[in-house]
Amino acid sequence: MLFCSHKIQFLSLSAVLHSPTHMRTSLLTASLLAALAAAPVFSAQAQKKPAAPAEPVSLTKTYPEDDLDPLPEFQGGQEALRKFLAAHVVVPPFALANQLAAAVDVEFVLHPDGRVDSMRVTNGACCGLDEEALRVAALTGGKWTPGRLRGTPVKARVDLPITFRVANKSSRSVAYLNEMKTKFTAYQGTPEHQKDQQTYQEQVAKQKL
Q: DSSP string of 85-112?
């Protein structure tokens, strides 16, 4: 039986130094390449640490919308949501009489079964508009498709902007809102306010869900 032994032959330093200049460079290069070829090769992948396992999806944790794919969506899409809000928002009489227009942002928790709770105003106005926005946001319960995290429906925080437009008049300036707040404070509790509240409740009662 024959055994073949393959060995890398390294040139002695003496032989390299006593060689002609043009040969010396070639010999040094050949020696270096031979040494590199004999060096052990380490895989970059072998040295990578294994990725940490993904956190289990929680059915009790409330996730921000940015974590979800797909996002929570009103059934029927944005156009259906726009029509729902237009059909159910009742502008309070004071805001209507004073042509008060504003945007109110409502945040709530959407559950996997479509329920909504924990509602709060994150960017409000005044004069009954915040309360009306909260009332209408509550009516959207059961009309949402929940967001998902890795395929599992989860609880999520949803931001719902509700815009009140009266005669296309903008009232987002601080000065205007402060003026309306002062006027509304004087208006509350008056016979006119009580009459307007009755009218408002009648309009709400006529709505069909």
A: HHHH----HHHHHTT--EEEEEEEEEPT
The string of pLDDT tens digits covering residues 107-145 is 999 999 999 999 999 999 889 999 999 999 999 999 999
**Residue pointed to by tokens 């989860």:** 154
User: 192 and 98 in contact (C-beta within 8 Å)?
Assistant: no
Q: CA 146 to CA 59: how far, in whole Å?
A: 12
| Alpha helices by DSSP H, the chain | 13-17, 21-38, 44-47, 77-88, 93-97, 129-139, 174-187, 191-205
Alpha carbons 74 and 89: distance in angstroms, whole number: 17
Q: How far is CA 169 from CA 90, 105, 173, 175, in A?
A: 17, 18, 11, 14
For 64-91, what is each residue's pLDDT tens digit?
A: 988 999 999 999 999 999 999 999 999 9
- Bridge partners (DSSP) of residue 145 are 73
Closest CA to 158 of 64, 31, 46: 64
**Cβ contacts of 76-79, under 8 Å, gap ≥ 24:** none
CB proximity list for 134: less than 8 A, separation 6 or greater: 106, 119, 121
